Amino acid sequence: MKEEKPIIVVGAGIIGLFTAYYLLQEGEKVLVLDKGTGQDGCSFGNAGMVVPSHFIPLAAPGMIEKGIKWMFDSESPFYIKPRMSLSLMKWGFSFYKAANQKKVDNAIPVLRDIGLLSKKLYQDLNHKKLFDFSFEEKGLLMLCKSEEALHEETEVAALANKIGIEARVLTKQEVCDLEPEIKPDVSGGVFFTGDTHLYPNQLVAELRKYLIAAGVEIKFDTELIDIECNSTAVERLKVRESNGEPYLLEAKKVVLATGSWSEQVGKQINLNIPVQAGKGYSLTNPQVAGKELFTPSIFVEARVAITPMLDQIRFGGTMEIGGINAEINKNRVNGILKAIPKYFPEYEVPYPAENKIWSGLRPCSPDGMPYIGQHQRYKNLYFNTGHAMMGISLATGSGKLISELVTNKKLSMSTQDFSIHRFD
Ligand SMILES: Cc1cc2nc3c(=O)[nH]c(=O)nc-3n(C[C@H](O)[C@H](O)[C@H](O)COP(=O)(O)OP(=O)(O)OC[C@H]3O[C@@H](n4cnc5c(N)ncnc54)[C@H](O)[C@@H]3O)c2cc1C
User: Fold this and answer.
1) 291 Cα–ligand 1 center, Å
2) What's residue 1's pLDDT?
3) Which domains does the chain have, with CATH numbers?
4) How far is the C-alpha of 382 from the C-alpha of 370, rounded, in Å?
5) How far is CA 48 from CA 13, 134, 222, 310, 398, in A?
6) Given a cut of 70, is residue 2 above it in pLDDT?
7) Cα(360) to centroid of ligand 1, in Å?
8) Nearest to 189 by CA among 216, 151, 159, 223
9) Is the model's pLDDT at 65 over the cut of 90?
10) Of the N and C termini of the chain, which has fewer Cβ atoms inside 10 Å?
11) CA 88 / ligand 1 centre spacing (Å)
12) Which residue ranges does the record assign to the FAD dependent oxidoreductase domain (predicted)?
């Protein structure tokens, strides 16, 4: 009997793994490929927040002005490295076109729905106890130093409550009650009660272990180098293991979950799927006795995220659009560290040894929406990528939606706004 061809998922980051998970739930045979070693990547050292409160896309009115101001500050949270790159120029132009109120108004209910779907799926997973990922439902505190930032966040809170995401505006005292050991020095904050968080390093490792035990094959050190198609479908993938000769793999269907490399991969099939890598950094330290942080928070002006994870505390931030590389920009890391005592006066984090600084490349689409969809011409080819700052948050929902598309099931929500052809 002829052996059944697998559905091949390219990319073993969190998006590829949850794609595999939900395909497995549909009874599919799944093979996952990744060119890396599986030891690190963007899905590991991130802030682990699962936050339906993030319903406003990055490409929003005012962001371009803010971005230009930040460009002149070497320690600011956002930076675009100037370089001669047609792909960067096109991405920037698409960002500019998306950063208007009409597009944002359209995006808000869609991001809310996929955010809530994803959170619900994480809750279900946590309930099932198939594997542990230290899921906690403690909310998210948006901490504002200035009255101006608090005013802006208060407006976001009002909008959140209007669309069904609970948000409470807190006084300085109420913020301090939530963080009694740290006593934040802020003008106030907004508390999104329904947000949650998890430990991403554990999630990736445990989910992978679960998938392998359940029969999913995962091949690392295996790079997709070409996609062979006939006029309507993908026939084979050409792959290569390090230093080895290329070879061909037959696939029933293919899902590309290739993160920051997706634009390059898209070129193999003449698909324009703009993605820029947005580098961020994080540091993870043990919690300090007597100065324990309890609630995940974000410093609003500094754009630094702080997440308690088991007995550790992780500080993460910065969005550096500078191509695909792993260079550590010390000024940006300093920007994160200097922000900490501004909000938490009794808390200092010294500059760490270089090997303690983690960096990851967020796959950023120009309009702040992920790409989740089917190729119009090659009907057995799909993309699930472009989740930028939200890949952990939206991984379950995106994995579920792509599995429903691939297996022709009723969709949990419309995927129209995630079309992979919207920039074609
Ligand atoms: C500092 C920081 C903090 C963050 N905090 C949060 C947070 O709190 N909440 C949240 O939701 N998100 C957060 N994020 C974003 C989140 O980490 C990403 O959105 C997510 O990890 C992206 O997952 P991915 O699977 O798409 O990409 P990746 O994890 O990068 O996986 C893509 C994989 O594809 C493989 N690949 C690429 N090309 C090929 C090829 N040709 N052949 C084979 N394999 C290939 C790569 O090797 C890689 O392993 C943060 C990111 C950073 C940097």
Assistant:
1) 31
2) 61
3) 58-85+136-195+275-364 (3.30.9.10)
4) 13
5) 14, 10, 27, 12, 16
6) no
7) 7
8) 151
9) no
10) N
11) 19
12) 7-405
HEC states along the chain?
A: CCCCCCEEEECCCHHHHHHHHHHHHCCCCEEEECCCCCCCCCCCCCCCEECCCCCCCCCCCCHHHHHHHHHCCCCCCEEECCCCCHHHHHHHHHHHHHCCHHHHHHHHHHHHHHHHHHHHHHHHHHHHCCCCCCCECCCEEEEECCHHHHHHHHHHHHHHHHCCCCEEEECHHHHHHHCCCCCCCCCEEEEECCCEECCHHHHHHHHHHHHHHCCCEEECCEEEEEEEECCCCEEEEEEEECCCCCEEEECCEEEECCHHHHHHHHHCCCCCCCCEEEEEEEEEEECCCCCCCCCCEEECCCCEEEEEECCEEEEEEEEEECCCCCCCCHHHHHHHHHHHHHHCCCCCCCCCCHHHCEEEEEEECCCCCCEEEECCCCCCEEEEECEHHHHHHHHHHHHHHHHHHHCCCCCCCCCHHHCCCCCC
Residue recorded with tokens 């968080």: 197
Confirm if 78 and 67 have CB atoms less than 8 A apart. yes
Over residues 342-394, the pLDDT tens digits come to: 999 989 899 999 999 999 999 999 999 999 999 999 999 999 999 999 999 99
How high does pLDDT run on average in the chain?
96
What is the average pLDDT across 227-252? 96
Nearest to 397 by CA among 64, 116, 97: 116
- Substitution site in 8, 53, 261 for ligand 1 pocket (most atoms within 8 Å of beta carbon): 261
- pLDDT of 25 strictly over 70: yes
Return the pLDDT at 3: 80
